[in-house]
Amino acid sequence: MASSSRVPQSKESQLKSFKTQLKADVRNMLVNFEEIMKLASRENTSQICKVTQCEQDALEMQVRAANMVRAGESLMKMVNDLKEFHILYDFPAINKTVKKMSELCSAKQIEIDEKLAIIAEDMKEELSDLEEEYYSTSLKYP
């Protein structure tokens, strides 16, 4: 197929739809991930019983994780749709856009991995301090 320099209007609107969906799904995943991190690292300042608050936080984390999975599945479907679009229309700009978005996602993944490593290290230190405090206290509970 010969590629044209101008994309027909219906194809252009389809590409805009893909772009809008991509932004919405990635934003959904990012927002839910950030909220899970906030829930995991927040101090208990609520007047709700600690056990109840933990259960509520756990349920909210599960809902947010499910939202992330749903957005991920939507992205996987969109990747398939983009491949089909590329095959049907031989549109070379899609390759550039997909590569650019892939690089952006990879960079964001590295950034998130670094944040997770910091959080894990902080949690490790806190747990170690708590364990040390427990074993060094004279008031041990049965």
Strands, helices and their partners?
Blueprint: H1 9-41, H2 50-89, H3 92-136
Structural summary, described in words:
The chain has helices at residues 9-41, 50-89, 92-136. Helix 1 runs antiparallel to helix 2. The chain is built from three helices and no strands. With 142 residues, the chain is mainly alpha-helical.
Helix and strand sequence:
HHH
Q: Write down the overall geometry.
A: elongated
How far the N terminus sits from the C terminus, by CA atoms, comes to: 77 Å
- Which structural class do you get from the secondary structure elements? mainly alpha
Q: Which stretches of 5+ consecutive residues score pLDDT under 50?
A: 1-5
| Biggest β-sheet description | none
In a nutshell, what does this entry contain?
This protein is mostly helical and 142 residues long. 83% of the residues lie in helices and 0% in strands.
Features:
142 residues, 83% helix, elongated, disordered N terminus
